[in-house]
Amino acid sequence: MQRTRRRPLPSGRLTPRAAARFASAITVGGVAYLALTVNLLTAGLAALTFVSYVCLYTPLKRTTSLNTLIGAVPGALPIVGGWTAAGGTLGAGVAALFGILFLWQLPHFLAIAWLYREDYRAGGLKMLGGGDEGGRDTGRMVVLYALALLPISLLPTMLGVTGPVYFFGALGLGVLYAAVGATLLAAATAARAWRVFFVSIVYLPLLLTLMVIDKVAA
Predict the structure, then answer these.
(1) pLDDT tens-digit profile of 25-38?
(2) CB 79: neighbour CB atoms within 10 A?
(3) CB under 8 Å, gap of 24 or more: what pairs does 20-29 form?
(4) Residue 138 in contact with residue 132, Cβ under 8 Å?
């Protein structure tokens, strides 16, 4: 793939054996550290993130375009681990956070997959939207997931985790995300797909910042 050819492994600067050894060492060390210094639940979530990403998502890239949906699970698990590390318990509040991270990723990665669809095909990877030359199907999926994200992003206030400032901020950001995605329905162009990608990058840190600012005291 042209997009990744300069990375350490494909460029040959790092051997697969060295990468596997290093990755294994930091994974085992990280999970052990969390188990000893934080709690077992957080360590278990970290291990689940690793297994689902490396053992499920990565090999499925070559077999099914649904790998994007599966990969969104380990992509959303770290915020759950952060919640439990801070003393939170599994429940509705953290489920809402997981749902936000899960759904946010999909328009983000759909835009990338469509922009680099030829590159992914050359690498033998099957991605959502990879065969959608016109971009209309990708646009529909982007809008669908952005609209699904909108009500989920409001749940923290409805569950008493955040206040009204977050609620109305999340509402505005969600409408913007969906509106930018909807431009792909009118005409899918590289410029519009890049706009979806950049808005997705802005959306998440702003949403989480609003969450921190407007956190309801326990």
Answers:
(1) 999 999 999 999 99
(2) 16
(3) none
(4) yes
State the chain's mean pLDDT as an integer. 92
Beta bridge partners of 215: 162
CA 159 to CA 134: how far, in whole Å?
Answer: 41
Q: What is the distance between the alpha carbons of residues 127 and 124, in angstroms, rounded to a whole number?
A: 10
Q: Contact 149/104 with Cβ under 8 angstroms? A: yes
Considering the chain, what percentage of its residues have pLDDT values greater than 90? 78
* Euclidean distance between CA atoms 46 and 26, whole angstroms: 12
Domain extent listing, the chain: 8-213
Residue partners of 96: CB distance under 8 A and separation at least 6: 152, 155, 156, 159, 161
Q: Locate tokens 């956190």: which residue?
A: 215
Name 162's bridge partners: 215
- DSSP secondary structure, the chain, as one string: -TTTTTSHHHHTSS-HHHHHHHHHHHHHHHHHHHHHHT-HHHHHHHHHHHHIIIIIIHHHTTT-TTHHHHHHHHHHHHHHHHHHHTT--SSHHHHHHHHHHHHHHHHHHHHHHHHTHHHHHHTT---TTTT-SSSHHHHHHHHHHHHHHHHHHHHHHHTTSB-HHHHHHHHHHHHHHHHHHHHHHH---HHHHHHHHHHHHHHHHHHHHHHHHTBPP-
User: pLDDT tens, 113-168?
Assistant: 999 988 888 888 888 776 777 788 889 999 999 999 999 999 999 999 999 999 99
